[in-house]
Write a structure and sequence with these properties.
Distance between the termini: 30 Å
Strand content: 5-15%
CATH class: Alpha Beta
Helix content: 40-55%
Structural class: alpha+beta
CATH architecture: 2-Layer Sandwich
Number of helices: 10
Shape: globular
CATH topology: BirA Bifunctional Protein, domain 2
Amino acid sequence: MAAESFGPELFAFLRELKASNTREWFAANKERYEEEVRGPALDFVADFAPRLERISPHFVADPRPVGGSLFRIHRDTRFSRDKSPYKSYTGVQFRHELGRDAHAPGFYLHLEPDACFAGAGVWHPDGTALQRIREAIVADPDAWRAAVGGKRFRERVRLGGDSLKRAPAGFDPAHELIEDLKRKDFICLRTYADGEVTAAGFLDAFAGTCTDATPLVRFLCGALDASF
C-alpha cells in the first residue's frame, strides 16, 4: 500500500513510547512498532523515491529495513546521561550519494508528536566542509543571496541551525554576509502539524518542501563539489 501519508496511530505509538521508554514495554509492543511506525515509514521511503529522482538523481531513497534511509529506533546511550533506550521520534534521511563518505547535503523528515518538520542542507559539517561553504559564500555572495533570498524559498522554508557568536577565524567581521558566515549549520526547515502528516497527500507535500529547498541544496552541492 502506498504511504501517501501516515496514520494517527504512528503518533499514538510514539507518545506511549515516550511515556514508557523501557525495553520491556517495547518488547511487548514490537508488533505495533512494525505495523504502525516502521512499515509505513519504509513504504513512504519507497514511494518517495521517484519524486526524489525528479528533484535530483544524486540523492538516495533507500527503503531497506537496516542500513537504509530510516533511522534506527534505538538510541546510542554510551555518552549520554539519558539512558532511555529508544528514540521517541521517527527520522528519515535522504542522503546524497556521497553522504556516507563526505559531508554532503541531504533531505530529512522528522516525525514526532507536535514537533514534525522537514529539513534540507548540511547539519554539523566538519571543519573542512564548513570552511568550503563559507569560502563559497564569500567568493559568490550573489549566488548565496539567490539561493536563500528567493520569494518561494523565503515564504515556504526558513534557515535554521546553530551559529557562532563571533566571526569565524579568517573572515572579515564587517563582511556584508557575516551573519550567514557565522552559521555552523547550513539548513532550512519547514514545520508540519501532526494533522498535515496524517492528511491525504502528505507525500506530495513533503516532495514540495524538498523542491522549495533546492536552491540552498544546489548551492551547497556546488560548494562541496557534489553533483546536483
